[in-house]
Design goal:
About 30% of the residues lie in helices and about 35% in strands. By secondary structure, it is of the alpha+beta class. Helix 1 packs across helix 4. The protein is globular, with a radius of gyration of 15 Å. It has a single domain, classed as START domain (Alpha-D-Glucose-1,6-Bisphosphate, Chain A, domain 4, 2-Layer Sandwich), CATH 3.30.530. Strands 1-7-6-5-4-3-2 form a 7-stranded antiparallel sheet.
Length: about 160
């Protein structure tokens, strides 16, 4: 597993991994948001609102840090099958994404990002400081969680090879 960090703009985070499975197989996992609690250490449960996942679909996550729990709502903002899946979190304005590309040996290079095109909301910054241990520790926790998410997706995808 590689943990690549491109130069980050303010609060943007990224982690990359190579998975020995096709982009279609990986896509099926990362877009099955009802299973996100199996991949992400922060997600407790995801409920999709409406029909199948596609551009514009909304969903609700219940997140955790230790004993603390909080809901977030999200909307799918990019949905290019087998290539790019992204959703914007309403409460803080961040965009979480999975970008997939084929490797020469039939696998998939996956980049998991937290994008902050408009920064992070002031309310979210205050709540992170007051309730989640502060920006630096929380970002470190998010970065570790992103790597763990990709490692879990990799393990699941490769177990079916």
């Amino acid at each position: 597993m590689t943990d690549a960090h491109a130069p980050e703009r303010d609060d943007e985070l990224q982690t990359t991994i190579t998975i020995e499975a096709t982009p279609a197989q990986v896509w099926a996992l990362v877009t099955d948001v009802k299973r996100m609690n199996e991949w992400s250490p922060q997600v407790v449960k995801t409920v999709v609102l409406g029909g199948p996942l596609r551009l514009g679909t909304r969903f609700v996550n219940l997140n955790r840090q230790g004993w603390k729990r909080w809901p977030t709502t999200a909307k799918v903002v990019r949905f290019q099958p087998h290539a790019d899946f992204a959703f914007r979190v309403t409460e803080n304005g961040t965009i979480w994404s999975f970008q997939l590309g084929p490797t020469d040996d039939g696998g998939t290079l996956v980049t998991h990002r937290r994008e902050t095109p408009n920064g992070i909301s002031a309310l979210s910054r205050v709540l992170t400081k007051v309730a989640l241990g502060g920006q630096e520790p929380f970002v470190a926790e998010l970065r570790a969680g992103m790597a763990q998410t990709l490692a879990r997706v990799k393990a699941e995808a490769e177990s079916h090879q």
